[in-house]
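Researcher: Re-running this chain for the archive, since the previous output was lost when a drive failed. Same request as before.
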Amino acid sequence: MNISLVKDEPEWKEAEDKEVLRVREMLEGFCLGDENAVNLCENFIYISHLWDDLQDKDKERTPREINVAFCKALGQIPMSPIYQANVAQMAPLTLIAANTWRIANRLESGNADDKIGSLILRNGLLHLIYFIIMCAGAAHNKPEWAIDIGEQFFRDMFKGYAKQYWDFLEELDEKERQQAPKPVVKKRQSRRKKD
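Model: Regenerated structure tokens:
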């Protein structure tokens, strides 16, 4: 059963986007060409992006896209051979990724430390993807490369992250400036005597 996102499907219309294609190619390399691992990663990424769009309301999603996400979550992911072979580890990692994402959404409206924490917690899904990559490597009898491939995976995933982080800090500074109470300027009395 092919559970990958098909390029011609409407819900995957953004597949032509260079970033999506870059991630797909990257996953194929990291997962040593294991299509089950790549498909599982893509399914988690699809669901997390859709969930984020619904939460943030920054991108309109169609009922079909939502239905596709539910089919992936309730059918394709649990039926994945990699998920089934590692269900004792995958289930809690999936729950941790979902819960840290929800916590990140709560922290987003807090103080500056909370907001930075939310930026960090949003990346919980990367640990789940890295675990899938390690499973693909173990299946190919290459567990020794987990650190090297992990380092490269996280480097690739964090490309552009510094700019995102600095932009985020600048946005925080701007919001704080806007919310800061305006200084009260007392009207000076003239030193001249009134006649």
